[in-house]
Specification:
Layout: E1 2-7, H1 10-25, E2 29-36, H2 40-46, E3 52-56, H3 60-82, E4 86-90, H4 95-102, E5 106-109, H5 116-125, E6 128-132, E7 143-146, H6 152-155, E8 178-183, H7 199-210, E9 214-219, H8 239-245, E10 248-251, H9 254-263, E11 267-270, H10 276-283, E12 288-291, H11 296-309, H12 313-325, H13 330-344, H14 347-365
Parallel strand pairs: 1-2, 1-4, 2-3, 4-5, 5-6, 6-7, 8-9, 8-10, 10-11, 11-12
Helix pairs in contact: 1-2, 1-13, 3-4, 4-5, 7-11, 13-14
């Protein structure tokens, strides 16, 4: 079976990397194309995943439109030559239109409701749209939901075990208080017009955390001089081990908040627009605390409360165990769904099978 995967964001490397390895071990040919955004190519190299870069991420509507043209123009001849049985992408913005032109099935995966423009374009062309069950929108008959979160494709305990030895080079050991802060660059297409923490509140946040333990700040945008001493030196391919052992994760990244939740670390997420998955992780499991950008003062107060309360790690791990009990192994589901489609070459039957397999997995954990 020939599988083409288009990677357009660092988090998408993690979503697909375990499945890529399994498919290759099963004898399938997997080709990876990528968009040069942030640390995407660095991650692909660190995980030794061969890939071809088709475009470089650009900002603004004009920049994004030009990138769309360039990326699509380079993808079309590759698809016509490789002739994949199926094309996969989170968002589907590139593979959807190309799939229609090349008459190749394109599957889009998403968990981001506010990516309005890219979802509108991609889902019009995609053969199937796959989302977590907590996703708040409905995309009709082509829409298939699964019981889980994107982050469980790479952080499910069947495929990931936190390694405490990564802490030692930074003078930490398991149980020591430390905090991870994540600021985003607000340059993605779905971020237009949005902002997060103000500069003053970024400084307040880090200062408050620094009173209680080490602080590691990860930022897509350059940090102001005041916060540069806190810039995270953690290797990008080891960050999830740090998240698993952290006392608290705070920031503007929905993905990192969800990563913390599925690992049993509390997270505070600040953003103008929420996500269905972080809402569920707050409402049902109490692992994420969501705040609008207009509620920054309230978010800072919650930071203080959580630090002062000093819940033991097992308090959060109990919540995580319930989350895992309610979820499927996303990589296992993804691998089997794609392989089943490869056997029958029928998108409708494969989607029906994916839904049935998801329900069978749900019954196992009930």
């Amino acid at each position: 079976m020939r599988i083409l995967i288009d990677i357009s964001h660092p988090a998408h490397v993690h979503f697909f990397r375990n499945a890529i390895s399994i498919w290759q071990n099963h004898g399938h040919t997997v080709r990876i194309v990528a968009r040069d955004k942030d640390i995407t190519c660095d991650l692909l190299q660190r995980f030794q995943i061969p890939h071809k870069v088709l475009s470089k991420a650009r900002t603004g509507v004009l920049g994004w439109t030009w990138e769309m043209i360039v990326h699509t123009a380079r993808l079309i001849p590759l698809v016509l030559t490789f002739r994949p049985h199926v094309m996969l992408q989170i968002g589907g913005i590139f593979v959807g239109p190309v799939g229609l032109l090349a008459r190749r099935p394109a599957w889009a995966f998403t968990d981001t409701e506010n990516a309005t423009l890219s979802n509108f374009i991609a889902f019009r062309f995609a053969h199937k749209v796959f989302t977590p069950r907590c996703y708040n929108l409905d995309h009709g008959s082509k829409h298939i939901r699964y019981s889980g979160f994107h982050e469980l494709a790479y952080l499910h305990p069947r495929g990931f075990a936190p390694d405490p030895s990564v802490l030692a080079p930074f003078g930490l050991k398991s149980g020591d208080p430390f905090f991870i802060v994540r600021f985003v660059g607000w340059q993605s297409a779905h971020d237009v017009g949005e902002t997060g923490f103000s500069l003053a509140n970024k400084i307040k946040l880090v200062s408050e955390l620094a009173r209680c333990g080490r602080v590691f700040v990860s930022s897509e945008a350059p940090l102001p001089p005041t916060l540069e001493p806190y810039a995270s030196p953690v290797p990008v391919d080891r960050i999830h081990h740090f998240i698993a052992h952290a006392t608290l994760v705070v920031g503007e990244s929905a993905t990192m908040a969800s990563e913390a939740a599925v690992l049993g670390t509390p997270a505070i997420f600040v953003s103008p627009t929420g996500r269905g998955y972080t809402d569920v992780q707050e409402r049902r499991y109490g692992l994420v605390f969501n705040f609008k950008d207009t509620e920054q003062a309230k978010a800072l107060e919650t930071v203080k409360e959580l630090i002062a309360t000093a819940y033991p790690k097992d308090h959060w791990q109990r919540k995580r165990r319930q989350l895992l009990k309610d979820s499927i192994d996303v990589t296992g589901w993804l691998v089997k769904t794609v392989e089943y489609f490869g056997e029958i070459h029928d998108a409708e039957a494969s989607a029906s099978w994916a839904l049935a397999w998801n329900r069978a997995e749900e019954r196992k954990v009930d």
